[in-house]
């Protein structure tokens, strides 16, 4: 029968497109696989594989598909360092590393060995884009006959004959005999720029098949019409789940866990045996700021003294061994049923026996969390004996705390088997509660990040002017343009519409509206008009980009914006494409504000002493940058994530946060103004400010603590970042800038330093992974992950992770 979970009826995760109802979960510990033996010979030189894959256990050799009779002859899958690998008598391994367990990948391998050019004989695609960068690239010989589509060939989905089993989920497995197809036969880009599945309308050929897992009693059934059914081993009806590329469900996060244990069963089981200390993990999806969500955890013994805390934890809760962070968890303790606020406990329910189902119901609209044992909800006084409506909330501060909360477990000598709704719940959820999946998240305000932020790469042509056109899914007239020469050591070039762009022919140095992020220079770079023109500038913005001007001919020759053969990156934000006077504060400002995207540019004249400035946004900024335009002075930054608003850092230096009331007047911003002290308020001096606040699904500002490991902290953003800046606040280190345009695949080690004029670095250290729902430090370098150091970050979205009516983002 076809699996259906009533709690999800009517959900649409693919933006109204082709819906996928189920996938097959493979657990490597069960040696799970599907197999069949070919009965006829088809085309051994042309074929196509297409499947959507969500990974579970990482960092082990795992085969998605191979010929089990010739284990080293033909296969494709993942290597132990997470490359995607195709072996056809010769080895092809991607430079890209596939290690995002929170989202789905669409993979296509198209083979045609009749092609004259060797690299055309095997084409690999991820999410509709051909992969062309390989750590190893060996191609089959011309007219090579693969073992696939040969009579008597035994195919196996997952693993080889005795090992290398896949762990995770597979959906929409197509095998096409006789054609080398394009990814557009199986997927398409929607209006928001997200790659999504579509129905395949072609033929399959003699040995072709289409595995969907639609029948839980026969997971290997072929729906191509060929009757090429597979036999299952190590799989049961419980392995049919509704976690799919069109509705992505939460699991335990294998990137956000204690390091001495690994989740299994597609990351739905986590725990340890006897003699191992407590381990903990958070979910792959954070609880949004609104909505009601329910999940179940089956508490299973795995030792003499099974113990667990189940509930929610903030992003600030430590996952270190045997550690509970005070104030950062809201949980129930299975030993006695007490509730725990961090390490502080009080009476709530009764002891929860092993094998009981712990129900967790979080109402983010009300900020409450309630717990049940076998569908009996707590009375708050030491028993589980109530209905949900009559039950007592353990905590009521989830919303008011302002924290990012995740499903959480902290466990010893037990397994916590979680069900976020990808399988039938044991008990009926309380009325109005949903599964924790992307289709049930609130609709994001910004569905396509490129409508408000994007990165554009270009090469200088040495001409007097060059028009630079944005190339993302959407385009806009930028209000803030930050340019950096990638190939050579020249300063960052900061421009905005409120100060005004320079124009074609600046008459004086004051007319050159350029500031350098890595320098304390005044506007115009503090130079004469001749030198400033020689370095280059932004002449104007356009409806879909901007115009750079090389300036007058000279020794500097436009190196900042348009030197011949030099490569550049331009990061652009949209404010309001217009300015208005703002009198909210004691100092009048001129503002261009995008309240939808949480970003404003403003200028103001200092009045002396202390003051307040209207920022033009609808809520208080999380991050502010201010620079004097008239004098040589630092770029001051303030953030909610420094110790307090008494502290600041300078964008043009590596310095750690420092205390000083003369910058932000030791006062946090409000929903209408930010405060300044004497350092930012010299009488009659002109200033520019850039203000940002978080927008769910588009921008994120926060902090994390480094662990000094190549398995660094996971940072939840709620979107796939297009741009990330990281800065250590506790110790002097660089402002490290990453984006997915300069480096489109993981690991991302192509960085620029905001405080330095140095050229871009392409490094195998100081790397991060850009993920579908955030980013993860992949090095122990001090710039991003020194042990015990505190880091702040700012990130802007390529696409939101999901939401009502929004397609889930595929993994990078």
Give a description of the structure.
With 812 residues, the chain is mainly beta. It has five domains: 6-241, Jelly Rolls (Sandwich); 252-440, Jelly Rolls; 449-573, no CATH class; 580-692, no CATH class; 699-800, no CATH class. It has three helices and 58 strands. Strands 1, 3, 8, 9, 10, 13, 16 and 18 form an eight-stranded antiparallel β-sheet that branches. A hairpin with a 5-residue loop joins β14 (187-189) and β15. The longest helix is centred in the middle third of the chain and has 7 residues, at 529-535. It is globular, with a radius of gyration of 28 Å.
Secondary structure elements and pairings:
Blueprint: E1 23-26, E2 33-37, E3 46-55, E4 62-67, E5 74-78, E6 83-88, E7 91-97, E8 105-112, E9 122-126, E10 129-130, E11 134-137, E12 154-157, E13 168-177, E14 187-189, E15 195-197, E16 209-211, E17 231-233, E18 240-241, E19 252-257, E20 269-272, E21 279-286, E22 292-301, E23 307-314, E24 329-333, E25 339-341, E26 344-346, E27 357-363, E28 368-373, E29 376-378, E30 384-386, E31 405-412, E32 414-419, E33 453-459, E34 465-469, E35 480-485, E36 493-496, H1 529-535, E37 537-542, E38 545-549, E39 567-573, E40 580-582, E41 589-594, E42 599-605, E43 611-614, E44 623-628, E45 635-639, E46 647-650, E47 658-659, H2 661-664, E48 673-676, E49 686-692, E50 699-705, E51 714-716, E52 719-728, E53 735-739, E54 750-753, E55 761-762, E56 768-770, E57 774-777, H3 782-785, E58 790-800
